[in-house]
């Protein structure tokens, strides 16, 4: 049997993007070999999980309970199979074992299965996969040769799948961490169009008008002045990947900053080439909301909370007093009460206490 007949290899390499996984490949393999059913079993990144895929009529409903209750897990000696070699059903059974002698008589023959060919592959990180074709007279040496020829391609497909799953896991963990810190990122092409972004940025678009996804997916600040500045900055980075990163304040209430940096190792995998990455840091709440939260958290008076929030933003006490319309002497008296109620021993510690309290993830 030729490997490329009927798009078998293409289906194998595309199967990792399907749901259910490898459905077309297993169905094509079943049709090619005349098998009653084909199956692919592997252990993904989580070693405790087992993925079992099949094409064709499912095994009898009693088969699962038979394996679990009567025989226990994995009656076949799968782990003893030599990697890359096709095995017959007889080779996988130990005739001296009562369990193996009973297996053809109990779950296999009622399906019309008289033989099976199975092969084991191991991708470089150690994930095992077993591919098998089960059926009648058509399951012979030609099927063994086909599975042997498929083995290196199955190994590559499993390696790609494992790498993709691990990258998905890393991406999920990174996104969660960014979200808890009120950070997000998005990549931009030379026309300031959004190519990719974290989920946190999408949520930010929904709750604020400071930034939005504009026409043709263009990143559009609310301020025309900032829009022109950002557009010119991204164009500059498209022309010069060694440009210096630039920070821009988008809003002071609620606070929101953006840091735009050129992408030096530019990807060719996307439809548009990203030239810049923008890191967004923004508070979910207004200053009034934050002051209410400080009142609840530390028992401050509203006037004290307003000063505490200003100090936590790094504003000098004299400037904070002027912004709040109070004298510097009044602000100093407030600050003493703030330090007593929060347990801070100075301005630096107050900043740390406020910014590392539960307000950071609120």
From TrEMBL:
Tell me what this protein is called. Answer: Transcriptional regulator
Care to name a GO molecular-function term for this sequence?
Answer: DNA binding
Q: Where do the coiled-coil regions begin and end?
A: none
Gene3D superfamilies the UniProt entry points to: Winged helix-like DNA-binding domain superfamily/Winged helix DNA-binding domain
- What processes does the entry annotate via GO biological process terms? regulation of DNA-templated transcription
- Database matches in InterPro entries: Sig_transdc_resp-reg_C-effctor, Tscrpt_reg_LuxR_C, WH-like_DNA-bd_sf
This chain's source organism reads Sphingobium xenophagum
Tell me the organism's taxonomic lineage: Bacteria, Pseudomonadati, Pseudomonadota, Alphaproteobacteria, Sphingomonadales
HTH luxR-type domain: residues covered: 297-354
């Amino acid at each position: 049997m030729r490997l490329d007949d009927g798009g078998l290899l293409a289906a194998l390499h595309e199967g990792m993007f399907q749901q259910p996984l490898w459905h077309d490949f297993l169905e094509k393999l079943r049709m090619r070999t005349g098998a009653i059913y084909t199956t692919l079993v592997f252990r993904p990144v989580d070693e405790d999980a087992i993925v079992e895929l099949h094409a064709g009529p499912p095994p009898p409903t009693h088969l699962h309970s038979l394996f679990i209750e009567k025989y226990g897990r994995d009656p076949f000696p799968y782990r003893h199979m030599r990697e890359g070699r096709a095995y017959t059903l007889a080779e996988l059974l130990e005739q001296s074992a009562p369990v193996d002698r009973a297996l053809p008589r109990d779950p296999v023959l009622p399906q019309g299965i008289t033989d099976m060919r199975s092969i084991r592959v191991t991708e470089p990180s150690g994930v095992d996969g077993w591919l098998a074709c089960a059926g009648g007279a058509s399951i012979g040496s030609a099927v063994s040769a086909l599975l042997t020829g498929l083995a290196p391609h199955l190994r590559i497909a499993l390696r790609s799948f494992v790498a993709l799953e691990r990258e998905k896991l890393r991406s999920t963990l990174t996104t969660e961490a960014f979200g808890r810190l009120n950070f997000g990122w998005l990549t931009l092409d030379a026309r300031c169009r959004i190519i990719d972004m974290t989920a946190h940025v999408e949520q930010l678009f929904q709750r604020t008008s400071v930034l939005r996804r504009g026409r043709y997916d263009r990143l559009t600040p609310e301020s025309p002045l900032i829009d022109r500045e950002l557009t010119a900055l991204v164009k500059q980075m498209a022309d010069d990947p060694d440009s210096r990163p630039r920070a821009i304040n988008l809003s002071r209430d609620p606070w929101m900053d953006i840091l735009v940096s050129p992408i030096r190792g530019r990807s060719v995998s996307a439809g548009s080439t990203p030239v810049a990455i923008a890191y967004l840091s923004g508070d979910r709440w207004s200053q009034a909301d934050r002051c209410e939260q400080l009142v609840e958290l530390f028992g401050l008076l509203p006037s004290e909370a307003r000063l505490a929030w200003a100090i936590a933003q790094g504003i000098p006490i004299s400037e904070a007093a002027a912004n709040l319309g109070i004298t510097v002497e009044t602000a100093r008296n407030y600050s003493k009460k703030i330090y007593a109620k929060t347990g801070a021993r100075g301005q630096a510690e107050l900043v740390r206490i406020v910014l590392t309290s539960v307000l950071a993830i609120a």
